[in-house]
From TrEMBL:
Gene3D superfamilies hit by this protein: Alanine racemase (3.20.20.10), Lyase, Ornithine Decarboxylase, Chain A, domain 1 (2.40.37.10)
Protein encoded by which gene: ldc
A Pfam family hit: Orn_Arg_deC_N
UniProt pathway: Amine and polyamine biosynthesis; putrescine biosynthesis via L-ornithine pathway; putrescine from L-ornithine: step 1/1
Enzyme class (EC, first level): lyase
SUPFAM superfamilies: Alanine racemase C-terminal domain-like, PLP-binding barrel
Designated name of the protein: ornithine decarboxylase
Residue stretches making up the Orn/DAP/Arg decarboxylase 2 N-terminal domain: 37-271
Protein's GO biological process: putrescine biosynthetic process from arginine, via ornithine
GO molecular function terms noted in the UniProt entry: ornithine decarboxylase activity
Length: 388
């Protein structure tokens, strides 16, 4: 793929403030530094493309209170997955009517809590879930999550969430019978869907259901398009405004006029605003004949880099020796677990001069790092987070 023509951006949005901060400070442990102003710029960039669609930030991508507080100030809504996330966004000043309880797997007590806190919008993909919502949040608005086939995303969300197309109308009807408001549909195209055109198949599938539901007399108001908005991890991506606008065009062509569109970016809003300061702990060869060096970092699969699972997300790494000759390395974390290998099938190229004690920067990793970090596996502390 040509990294320049056809794509608006080949460099990360604005990591410089974060990387300057990292260069000027010492860190005892791996530390995620997140630039809240960069989150705000990205919010505006996405909003500009999304038109009348409203952003509901997917809190799980990075729940740092400074991010939530800034987004509240910008008028963002929030997609919360748990009681804890609802409490967090409310404590930062979000209005309950800007919060959706978007997890399709909720405890009855948590639904009741959300209802009492004023949340009126809930996701569901099963009869039993609708019954729980009707019992604990009577009269609530619900949207039915649809399983998406054939995701082209780098981090697909599998079949865990959503129901098959042939169940959607039954569930909308069940919601109505239970005294709930069958408000709309939701889906998730898969996280890190690098190109807007990759939404086409998913939108075709969901639009067919949407029109069938309208035909069956359901006055659907809400289309929740989930996340999927990409971050720059080394492969060219479209400018966020152009990407969002292209998705909205694809939606308009298939759905026509939709009263309310909700987008739930997580990664696309916060990933590029953060970088992790980390350190090389050991560089070794398993034998003198080994072609690859092994490079062990003080951060790994269990301390924030969970999305290296299956080598799906390939982070960009900056070292103080960039510019020196490079060679292939297997990259691994520090824990005593053999799954804690980040990149081996596709080795990563790093300077041949890299040595223990070198400080490195892992770029564009403001999303899904602090939340995936284990608490004290092997005695390694969880990822520190500093908002600047
Ligand atoms: C995780 C999640 C998102 C965010 O997805 P990204 O690809 O990070 O933007 C949005 N909606 C729901 C329901 C999610 O579970």
């Amino acid at each position: 793929m040509n990294a320049v023509t056809g794509f608006g951006r080949i460099a990360p949005l604005a990591p410089s403030r974060v990387e300057s901060f990292i260069a000027e400070h010492e860190f005892a442990h791996p530390t995620l530094v997140i630039d809240v102003d960069a989150v705000e710029r990205q919010f505006h960039a996405l909003s500009a493309g999304l038109g009348h669609a409203h952003i509901h930030y997917a809190v799980k991508a990075n729940p740092h209170p400074a991010i939530i507080e800034r987004l509240v100030g910008l008028g963002s809504g929030f997609d919360a997955a748990s009681r804890g996330e609802i409490e967090l966004v409310l404590s930062q000043g979000a209005h309950a009517d800007h919060v959706s309880f978007g997890n399709t797997i909720k405890k009855a007590a948590d639904i009741r809590f959300a209802h009492q806190a004023g949340v009126t919008l809930f996701a569901a993909d099963a009869e039993e879930e609708l019954a729980k919502i009707a019992d604990n949040a009577p009269g609530a608005r619900v949207y039915i999550r649809v399983i998406v086939d054939n995701s082209e995303a780098d981090w697909p969300l599998s079949r865990k969430f959503g129901c098959a197309s042939d169940k959607v109308l039954d569930l909308l009807g069940r919601a109505r019978d239970l005294g709930l408001v069958p408000h709309g549909l939701s889906f998730h195209v898969g996280s890190q869907t690098r190109e807007a055109r990759m939404w086409t198949g998913t939108l075709d599938q969901v639009a067919a259901i949407w029109h069938r539901a309208q035909g069956a007399g359901f006055d659907l108001q809400l289309l929740n398009i989930g996340g999927g908005f990409p971050a720059f991890y080394g492969e060219a991506i479209e400018h966020p405004t152009a990407y969002a606008a292209a998705v909205i065009d694809l939606i308009s062509a298939r759905f026509g006029e939709v009263p309310q569109i909700m987008a739930e970016p997580g990664r696309g809003l916060v990933a590029e605003a953060g970088a992790i300061a980390a350190e090389v702990v050991l560089v070794s060869r398993k034998s003198d004949a080994d072609l690859h060096r092994w490079v062990y970092l003080d951060i790994g699969r269990f301390s924030g880099l969970a999305e290296t699972e299956g080598e799906a997300i390939r982070y960009q790494i900056a070292t103080p020796r960039d510019g020196d000759e490079t060679g292939a390395c297997v990259l691994a974390g520090p824990s005593c677990d053999s799954a804690d290998v980040l990149y081996e099938k596709r080795p990563i190229h790093l300077p041949v001069t890299l040595a223990a004690g070198d400080r490195i920067v892992i770029r564009n990793c403001g999303a899904y790092t602090s939340t995936y970090s284990s608490v004290c596996f092997n005695g390694f502390p969880p990822l520190d987070v500093i908002a600047i």
